[in-house]
Amino acid sequence: LPPLRYPAICTLKGGSESEKQQYIIHGGKTPNNELSDKMYVMSVVSKNNKKVTFRCTEKDLVGDVPGARYGHSINVVYSRGKSMGVVFGGRSYIPSAQRTTEKWNTVADCLPHVFLVDFEFGCSTAYNLPELQDGLAFHVSFARNDTVYILGGHSIANNIRPASLYSIRVDLPLGSPAVNCTVLQGGIAVSSAIVTQTNNDEFVIVGGYQIENQKRMVCNIVSFEDNKIEIREMESPHWTPDIKHSKIWFGS
């Protein structure tokens, strides 16, 4: 198994009942405060008498390999019968040449590159899209068919949580992939939230921060209809006192 870390995890393929379900683990901080660029693929080998056996292998990548980071996202898109991983954003330590004793643990946002990762062949390619100006860390992301949506996040350089919303569409023809980014309206300012898919056309966003040290107690529904996205507030649960008064709210 990979060492302990706060990772980015996603389902690669197959539904919750599928035997071919795989999970991708990448990056994150280890307990000794180091960042990792390792990528692991975890899959179910067998289910026998309610005992589940997993296999976890380290995936070696070639090409433009995403550097060590945390607070990023991995999603999987599907196009023309093929799948591809999409890595974006996050935060990393400043380059080693700039690290001094006083600045050893200083972090900076990663460059706003979009990485396409082919898990079958172990190839990775970076794309620099002009619409993406910041490598927003702790953003919310969700994938639907051939498109990844990037919502909110935090820019450490400007110390802002922009109400941004981007769609990154990936086309996978026989030749080279085509990656296009579109700036959408209707985003919300949020970082470090949790997103859960409730059905094919709906996601729910819970928690996170709207400004520094101010927790976000509202919840949102993200719905799709005819390829149009809508984000609206939903009725929040009755938060317990320990949640209301806690300083930490999910992925802080």
What's the helix and strand layout?
Blueprint: E1 8-11, E2 22-26, E3 39-48, E4 51-58, E5 62-63, E6 73-79, E7 82-88, E8 91-93, E9 107-109, E10 113-118, E11 123-128, E12 140-144, E13 147-151, E14 165-171, E15 178-183, E16 194-199, E17 202-206, E18 209-211, E19 214-215, E20 219-225, E21 228-234, H1 241-245
Parallel strand pairs: 5-11
Antiparallel strand pairs: 1-2, 2-3, 3-4, 6-7, 7-10, 8-9, 10-11, 12-13, 13-14, 14-15, 16-17, 17-20, 18-19, 20-21
Tell me what you see in this structure.
This is Recombination activating protein 2. It is a single chain. By secondary structure, the chain is an all-beta fold. It has one domain (8-190). Helices cover 2% and strands 45% of the residues. The protein is built from one helix and 21 strands. The chain has one helix at residues 241-245; strands spanning 8-11, 22-26, 39-48, 51-58, 62-63, 73-79, 82-88, 91-93, 107-109, 113-118, 123-128, 140-144, 147-151, 165-171, 178-183, 194-199, 202-206, 209-211, 214-215, 219-225, 228-234. The strands form six sheets. Strands 5-11-10-7-6 form a five-stranded mixed beta sheet, with no helix packed on it. Strands 1-2-3-4 form a four-stranded antiparallel beta sheet, with no helix packed on it. The longest helix is centred in the last third of the chain and has 5 residues, at 241-245. The model has no long low-confidence stretch (mean pLDDT 88).
